[in-house]
Amino acid sequence: MSHEAPEPLTAAEWKVMKIVWRRKSCAARDVYEEAGVEHGWAPSTTKTLLRRLIDKGHLTATAVGTSYLYRPSRPAWKSLAGAADSLLDKTLEGLDGKLLAYMVQRSRLTSDDLAQLRSLLEQHPAGGDAASKVESAATSETGPEEAP
């Protein structure tokens, strides 16, 4: 298997991956049924998406009788990190901090998550000042300040 990151996911592929990540391992029928209920998709639509996800390297499929068992090729956090990297690469220079503050504000972070984030920010070259700015933006009701 290649060490390169898989191709980016489309919005529909993220929906299928969420089903598979939630279940950790599932039969094709399980994915068809859940995608049908959640998104109104026909089994053929879901089958096409599963094939694309295998081709892109996000899923593995193991034949079990007349069906397949699907498993994620990598943990959800790695795919999310790849999507975040892609987004940061596309944003304007200098807005990374504002984007991070917005993401922290929108996230459902636990106190443990915040402690880990605080620790990472303390280790950042900007030091504790960065930690207090992100924490302030994350708890603000108005959100991060507007970009220039």
What can you see in these coordinates?
One of its GO terms (molecular function) is DNA binding. The protein has helices at residues 11-23, 28-39, 43-56, 76-90, 96-106, 111-123, 128-139; strands at 26-27, 59-64, 67-72. The protein is mostly helical. It folds into two domains: 11-72, Arc Repressor Mutant, subunit A; 91-139. Strand 2 (59-64) and strand 3 form a beta hairpin. Helix 2 crosses helix 3 (43-56), helix 5 (96-106) packs across helix 7 (128-139) and helix 6 packs antiparallel against helix 7 (128-139). The longest helix has 15 residues, at 76-90. The model is unreliable at 141-148 (pLDDT under 50).
Keywords:
single chain; 148 residues; mainly alpha; Arc Repressor Mutant, subunit A; 2 domains; 7 helices; elongated; transcription
Briefly characterize the structure.
This protein is mainly α. It has seven helices and three strands; from the N terminus they run αβααββαααα.
